[in-house]
TrEMBL record, chain B:
Biased composition (Acidic residues): 239-249
Name of protein: Proteasome subunit alpha
Subunit structure: The 20S proteasome core is composed of 14 alpha and 14 beta subunits that assemble into four stacked heptameric rings, resulting in a barrel-shaped structure. The two inner rings, each composed of seven catalytic beta subunits, are sandwiched by two outer rings, each composed of seven alpha subunits. The catalytic chamber with the active sites is on the inside of the barrel. Has a gated structure, the ends of the cylinder being occluded by the N-termini of the alpha-subunits. Is capped by the proteasome-associated ATPase, ARC.
Keywords of this entry: Cytoplasm, Hydrolase, Proteasome
GO biological process, one term: modification-dependent protein catabolic process
Localization per record: Cytoplasm
MF terms (GO), sorted A to Z: threonine-type endopeptidase activity
Reported regulation of activity: The formation of the proteasomal ATPase ARC-20S proteasome complex, likely via the docking of the C-termini of ARC into the intersubunit pockets in the alpha-rings, may trigger opening of the gate for substrate entry. Interconversion between the open-gate and close-gate conformations leads to a dynamic regulation of the 20S proteasome proteolysis activity.
PANTHER family attached to this UniProt entry: PROTEASOME SUBUNIT ALPHA/BETA
Record bears the keyword Amino-acid biosynthesis: no
Organism of origin: Streptomyces sporangiiformans
Segments of skewed composition (Gly residues): 253-264
């Protein structure tokens, strides 16, 4: 990136001159991303909807990307800018790895993403914010970790679970009641899909599982073995089993009162 | 008053070429061979940290003999070129041919500029294709010319002898273990024709493996896997190596940007 900023600065996000604008720019926005850790790894999942105002801009957008072998990033906010940011982020991690012959630490990757969000601050002030969620497996500490960000690039590490995007308040509420520290991988994937279901239930900008079109949330798992994205069959199975139960209990599983 | 000493351009170029060739000849040789599933790089390298081979991009590998600081400089330049290309256009638009051209320009300019000393390096840029016919191997000598090679290529000190040895014995569709053994045999031959033993710890081996599910096809072969491939009698070692490759590949199977250089 340092090389790029000297060589072709116009290629970098945040280095472009912005025309003065009045009002809100209409551009597709991605919505809800959720993540949860479990012993041995972390899951990161996102719904499939992009909205533009009250219109659904895209039904099957992909908002969770592998950043490198041991980390992934899920994006909420202006889709076009976010996808570009992820592309540059992936490039930078790969470039570092090839030039130095070693991977960046997870902490280093998280800091790098923070700087990239901050460089987008001018756009964010005009309503084109990008707020990702970063999750990865820390090879040194041997555990999954989650980092959340705000529009100014402020970074905070989350313990247990986190969510970002318009449906995040509902998703976080759901996870708060369902999360426990000793979930296994399969339970953790179910947890995040439950949380996305609850987000879609209450937030119009978040898409639920679309059985008719076979569009299901993207669920990724990062463990010691590296990044893995659940196949469509696997994620449809999770979504369908949840749907099945919700036909009887529309509000989902109940937590104990006391 | 002394008159400036006249040196004919031919003589000046010949001197520079001689200088560069001597520098390269001091370095250890390395060989690059095609095999059934890709391209293998084999060289003698006592250092574990300073690599002779490295990944440039998804399907492109780099090998160099000669002076370390000079080829490392070129390697980083190549990684930058490839990453910038891939980011600007698409990952598919980064080709070995394009990269070889950039290297040829750089080496050629340095070689003919009177202000700089010529680089004492010889490079190999290889790209693995979907099929063996799609494989490309380019050899770039110190003066900036490009040689399009097929089958096998050797660069470094003893290159001519090694490449004639390889030309006679290399055939298409070899397994990895066969290709590796042939390469080691070729490297162990001394200038005077006698053979010496190169232990596995002193070998640096990397492959561009077209069967790898990840986007990035470059993989180093180290440790147990290497000794097994060298010791095995061909087929057995090959299938074991594949089994290991599979378990390791499942790590980042759908990871587009996954696949690390130092996996093990």
């Amino acid at each position: 990136m340092d090389f790029l900023s000297q060589h072709q600065p116009e290629m970098l996000p945040g280095k472009r001159q912005l025309p003065p604008v009045q009002g809100v720019i209409e551009a597709p926005h991605g919505t809800t991303i959720v993540a949860a850790t479990f012993p041995g790894g972390v899951v990161l999942a996102g719904d499939r909807r992009a909205t533009m105002g009250n219109v659904i801009a895209q039904r099957d957008i992909e908002k969770v990307f592998p950043a490198d072998e041991y980390s992934a990033v899920g994006i909420a906010g202006t889709a076009g800018l976010a996808v570009e940011m992820v592309k540059l982020f992936q490039l930078e991690l790969e470039h570092f790895e090839k030039v130095e012959g070693a991977q960046l630490s997870l902490e280093g990757k998280a800091n790098r993403l923070s700087t990239m969000i901050r460089s987008n601050l001018a756009m964010a002030m005009q309503g084109l914010a990008v707020v990702p969620l970063f999750a990865g497996y820390d090879v040194d500490r041997e555990k999954g970790r989650i980092f959340s960000y705000d529009v100014t690039g402020g970074r905070s590490e989350e313990s247990g679970f986190a969510a970002t995007g318009s449906g995040s308040i509902f998703a976080r509420g759901a996870m708060k009641k369902l999360y426990s520290e000793n979930l296994n991988e399969q339970q953790a994937t179910t947890l995040v899909v439950q949380a996305l279901y609850d987000a879609a239930d209450d937030d119009s900008a978040t898409g639920g599982p679309d059985v008719a079109r076979r569009i299901y949330p993207i669920v990724t798992v990062i463990t010691e073995e590296g990044f893995r994205r659940l196949t469509d069959e696997e994620s449809s199975e999770i979504a369908r089993s949840i749907l099945e139960r919700r036909l009887e209990q529309p509000d989902g599983p109940r937590a104990a009162l006391l | 008053m002394s008159t400036p000493f006249y040196v004919s351009p031919q003589q000046a170029m010949a001197d520079r070429a001689e200088y560069a060739r001597k520098g390269i000849a001091r370095g250890r040789s390395l060989v690059v061979l095609q095999f059934a599933d890709g391209i293998v790089f084999v060289g003698e390298n006592p250092s574990r940290a300073l690599h002779k081979f490295s990944e440039i991009y998804d399907r492109i590998g780099f090998a160099a003999a000669g002076k370390y600081n000079e080829y490392e400089n070129l390697r980083i330049g190549g990684v930058r070129y490839a990453d910038l290309r891939g980011y600007t256009y698409d990952r598919d638009d980064v080709t070995a041919r394009g990269l070889a051209n950039v290297y040829a320009q750089t080496l050629g300019t340095i070689f003919s500029s009177a202000a700089e000393k010529p680089y004492e390096v010889e490079l190999v840029v290889a790209e693995v294709g979907e099929t063996p016919e799609g494989d490309q191997i380019y050899r770039l000598p110190h003066d900036g010319s490009i040689v399009d090679e097929h089958g096998s290529v050797a660069v470094g000190g003893n290159a001519e002898q090694i490449s004639s040895y390889l030309d006679q014995r290399h055939r298409e569709g070899m397994t990895l273990a066969e290709a590796l053994k042939l390469a080691v045999q070729a490297l162990s031959r001394d200038t005077n024709g006698s053979e010496r033993e190169i232990p596995a710890e002193r070998l640096e081996v990397a492959v561009l493996d077209r069967t790898r599910p990840q986007q990035r096809k470059f993989r180093r072969i180290v440790g147990r896997q290497l000794s097994r491939l060298l010791a095995g009698d061909g087929t057995g070692a090959e299938s074991e190596a594949e089994a290991e490759g599979d378990s390791e590949d499942s790590a980042g199977s759908s990871g587009g940007a996954g696949g690390s250089e130092d996996e093990k």
